[in-house]
Amino acid sequence: SVMPPESIHSASPGPLWAAGIDDGAVGPLDAVRIIVEAGRRIVEIHDSGVLHLAVCRRTLVVDDGEVGLLPGADAAQRDEDDHDSPAFPAELDRALIERLPHDRDAARDVLAEAGVALDPRRIDVYQLGAVLLRLLGDASVEEYLRSPRVKARIPALCRPLVDRALGFNPADRFTDAGQFVQAAVDCRSRLQAAAGGEGAPDTSPSVVSGELLPDTDAGDFELGSGRDRTDVPFERLGHFRVIERIGHGGMGDVYKGFDD
Questions:
Q1: Mean of the per-residue pLDDT values for the chain?
Q2: Which of 148, 153, 133, 156 is nearest to 202 (CA)?
Q3: Rg (CA), the chain
Q4: DSSP helix/strand/coil, 60
Q5: 6: left (phi over 0), alpha (psi -120 to 50) or beta
Q6: Which of 24, 133, 153, 184 has the fewest CB atoms in 10 Å of its CB?
């Protein structure tokens, strides 16, 4: 039998963010721990023949270490300008989203009739990836894809998990929530090892070419112009001339520079 959407819930009393955890305010290990448990809830839901269709910070709940999902709001109520709203794969336009039922098989039929080759389970997996971006770096999917600076905020150990959940590379995307959970568990183990000093990620500085950072601004900087560079501990790294430090990612400090 198919579980009705209203039965998709958690015993936890309130949204994750209502518990005082803001976007990007949890560390990578805690973020992945949360998303592992959320993924397990999605596996259970899918096994019952249902889609959630609204995995987002409004529906994710954490209480005393327990993670669950509140009932998904009607996908038709999605507000594209509201960062609290669920994200959807690019293959789906708003009209199609509004037609999607929670019944997994019925949703598959709707997608097939629309000529969209998409396993409907991937919608929930995509949304898990979008929530993980919010937890890790207060980033939307669009910001993550378009901005190297935003992407640098996401720990390198977590990026493959995000990328495969979003599924923009068809050859390397997760096909179901079970695969996502397994990869998230593996990511959690790598983060734990890094935190314990075993297999820690490379923390050496890296340089990103200025030509690859359209959303950053070198202002009136010219080589040798005397701009205040107190945040740059060196002027050169390999064949790059370093301009400024622009952030810190999972692989260490990130600097803006030019191939010189």
A1: 76
A2: 156
A3: 21
A4: strand
A5: alpha
A6: 24
Using CA atoms, how far apart are residues 2 and 179, in angstroms rounded to an integer? 22
- Interacting residues of 187 by C-beta distance below 8 A, sequence separation 6+: 32, 157, 158, 160, 161
Average pLDDT over residues 114-122: 96
Q: Where are the beta strands (DSSP E) in 55-157?
A: 60-63, 66-69
pLDDT in tens, 77-110: 555 555 668 899 999 999 999 999 999 999 999 9
Nearest alpha carbon to residue 229 among 251, 257, 210, 201: 257
3-class SS shares of the chain: helix, strand, coil, % to 5: 40, 15, 45
Q: What pTM does this model have?
A: 0.69
Distance CA 102, CA 115 (A): 19
Element (H, E) at 241: strand 240-249
CB 152 within 8 A of CB 158: no
For 1-10, 35-44, 237-246, which range has the lowest pLDDT when averaged over its residues?
1-10
Question: Cβ(75)–Cβ(84) under 8 Å?
Answer: no
